[in-house]
Specification:
Elements lengths: L7 H8 L18 H14 L13 H13 L2 H16 L16
């Protein structure tokens, strides 16, 4: 596991949020390999590089890109963000700083 890859606890939460479309799946990576796909997506978003520069250990860059686009179009990322926000709120884990929330002084 590389720095920045999903931990077991993080993967357990995310795994249930990803669509499994076995009937319309066709060719390509199996749904069990979604963890590597997610790690590739996170690597690309963290580094800001072109999709073609995603390391091969995460899989084919084109597979990772297509899965990202398909999940984006299906609204998967919105569901993931809402669920993660709920999990963080329930567990008491918050991460707020001045770059996220601007302070306004009342006069």
């Amino acid at each position: 596991m590389s720095r920045g890859d999903l931990s077991e606890a993080e993967w357990r939460i995310l795994k249930g949020l990803l669509p499994i479309d076995a009937a319309n799946r066709g060719r390509g990576r199996l749904p069990e390999e979604n963890r590597a796909i997610i790690n590739g997506i996170l690597w690309r978003l963290r580094c800001g590089t072109p999709w073609r520069d995603v390391p091969p250990k995460y899989g084919n860059w084109n597979t990772i890109y297509r899965r990202f686009r398909r999940w984006s179009d299906a609204g998967v990322w919105e569901a993931v963000s809402v669920t993660l926000a709920e999990v963080m709120a329930d567990s008491g884990h918050y991460s707020i700083d001045s770059t996220t929330v601007r302070d306004h002084k009342s006069i």
